[in-house]
Model the fold of this input.
Amino acid sequence: MTGRIGHDAATSALQLQVYLPTETLLDVPASKVIAEAEDGAFCLLPRHVDCVAALVPGILSYVTTAGEERFLAVDEGILVKAADRVRVSTLNAVTGTDLTELRQTVDEAFRALEEHEREARSALARLEAGTLRRFIEGEAIGP
Done:
């Protein structure tokens, strides 16, 4: 009779994958993943029950199989834990090795994103104003 107690190396790690709309940001083995959902933070370990969670903007941390703690600042997204895979899909994420560096990187990235969004809103407002002006001018001419 053969049997195993505990778990072997194949089940002692999770494969953490983080997907952005245009790329795979991260695909690494991890011994632990900590994320934050609307209900609060939670920890996933190997052999944890499968689950799905809606993530809120915040810090996702993980511990590599070498024991190093790493961090990601993530936008809202979805986390799916199935078997030994943890998949995270989010619009924006920034990686870092320490929280101070990550905060600076996030501040810079968000400033750039805010500027881009401001420019996009301004362009949309000009487009809407031009469309409305042409519509009004078209009504003034009439049939």
